[in-house]
Amino acid sequence: MIEHFPSSSPSPEAIETIASPETEQSLVDVVECAVNDPELKTLAAENKLAVAQGEINIKMLTKLKPSEGWAYKVYANESEETARKLVAAVYVTKKGLDYGTVEIAYFSDGEERGKGYATAGVSEVTEILTQKYEVLAKIDIGNEPSEAIVRKLGYKSMHMGEGSMNLFVKDKHRG
């Protein structure tokens, strides 16, 4: 399930909830938020290894203006009895928006790796983004877990990485 804001500047009173078409109850709940959201900052601070592995520039991302990007918090959706736990983050930057392109960066809580949360979160975010944009993901050469996520979701390798990065693209839905 994704809670998202229809405008690029999230406001709590503008939340919409969209059910995931694949399953009745999704593995995750995804909530759109500002890039400088305090929960995301805490998750990044507590998961320095994951952030470093992806060479994600958290300082740069958290300083983006609302007109330059936004983020999604990914919560585990295990059961109603379980407290909602933040397990991953997905950042979106509007680097190529003039050309109909956005770029994503993501990481997961180290304790929650391998449980499918990052894949489910990136999948739901990709589904929303590809309604309007072509989506790019730059992934470090050798970051096999992140590469496996985008490959599983149908991103295509462009084999044009910048230095130590591979570039993957998911085309905008045509329709």
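The above is record 1. Record 2 follows with the same two-line structure.
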Amino acid sequence: MVQVRRALLEMNNIEAVLLKQRSDEASAELQDTIYAMIIGFGSGISLLFLSYVAVNREFALRKKAEEAVLDYVKQLGNAMESTLQAVARVVEAHDPYTAGHELRVGQISADIAREMGWSEEKCNSLQLIGLVHDIGKMSIPSEILSKPGKLSAMEFELVKTHAEQGYQILKNVEFPLSIAEIIREHHERMDGSGYPQGLKGEKILIESAYLL
């Protein structure tokens, strides 16, 4: 009887050992699984972080590039304005009788455009065009432009060519508005009595109509 009890006890001990071994194996497997999950989660976090850094870096570089472009465009705009102002002074020197005329035309034209609801950028562009709208007069002899008396019919016809000459001078210049066409049409009239093409009504560029 004692031997039977010992055998049962040993079997119970063996079973307990086996259960503990299985428990330990399961625990180790669970630990490995949890560790793998942690490693995987950590890798995911790392990838997310790296992606975040890359996106922010790209955004910063793009913003910096955009700022550089805007700065360059501003510099070009300032250079263009300075150039047109210099040209306007040359035209005035060639025709001192109308000194200040180009400046006033530019200011008035821009004011009209503002009243019509144009953007400030377009108004400023039109004002700059006003500064050189008579650039074609550089092709007219200064003796005719500054003649104190009445011009002869031939002299007046020669003066009228300044609109077309202005177009020829500026036709290859890149500008926010169609500067050459606007200058060519700034003496056209709604009734078709203007020059050089005798345009009328809606065939005249609205910008040219504002260049009084």
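Helices lie at 2-94, 101-115, 120-131, 142-145, 153-160, 162-170, 179-184, 206-210.
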